[in-house]
Amino acid sequence: MADKHHHHDDAHAPIEEPQGPPGEDELLEVALRELLVERGVLSAGAVDQQIDVIESRNPALGAQVVARAWTDPAFHQALLSNPLDTLEKAFQLPMSGPVPVDLKVLENTPAVHNVVVCTLCSCYPRMLLGPPPAWYRASAYRSRVVREPRAVLREFGLELPDSVEVRVSDSTADMRYLVLPRRPEGTDGWSLEALSGLVTRDCMIGTAVPRDPSIEAHGLTTCEDAGDEP
Amino acid sequence: MRTVTGRKVNDLGGLDGAAIDRHETPKTLFEQRVDALVMLLIHPEIGAFKVDALRRMVEQNSVEDYATLGYYQKWVRAVRDLLIEQEVLTSEEIRGKLVEVRARFAEGGSER
To answer: What is the pTM of this model?
Structure first.
């Protein structure tokens, strides 16, 4: 099977899994799932239900959090000092997953831009953004962003002035990070909905900044995600 | 498993790397199911294993497998090994079930 799988160090190889007839690993998933149901470890349908739960968390939720933080000073303060409790109260959503995981909100300022990675695996603020994109899990991002973050950000279309310090935070199993991007100029009086529409997933990872509505897209200060997770 | 540099296979920070491939496609059903399976099994309600154990298994891949196997391929194999290690299932049971599942798929038309 190994010849069917793409090498991640090939810049042109798609990251996603190969498609086609069921491979050994697909058969293995079916076998394990069926055995676990037969043994009473899992209830029938538990996996499908869990897929729905996972899909219910997506970057739109994170974008709402950011928009609220931009417009509500008390929430902003509480979010930075006590993220998980604040989010549970404000959004009525459980923020602790299957295992306790802490969350830290990293606020971008005119002087500091934050970027998040997990160099060891793929730890990610799933409770707010859903599962991570393929590039976040892949070796190129994980290896390079801690050493040459500006070059990596440039590949995402984000060119930061030298005066801005770039801080890369390496996530762990126990600590996840959400980047709180800067609110673009010219958005005074915007609704929460309109503001959250500026906040893409990549803005909250730090590989993009929100689109500045006063500037026509010219590729430097704006950045669009390559694609969205479903 | 350590490489000559003393790093484990998953310890990539600071190494050389290729251009970032930002290509994304929706998750396949296989990927979604493996993801869901792991989330269920690490949940304290079931507690088949802890997420750290999953990572330990993934980190035990050879350099070659770590680089070439898909993310969720590594996960599903780690789940298999952990379920055996934690005596939730036996390798014989899994082998037997795989024969059954493979036969069903070969006949075609079977629900995955």
So the answer is: 0.82
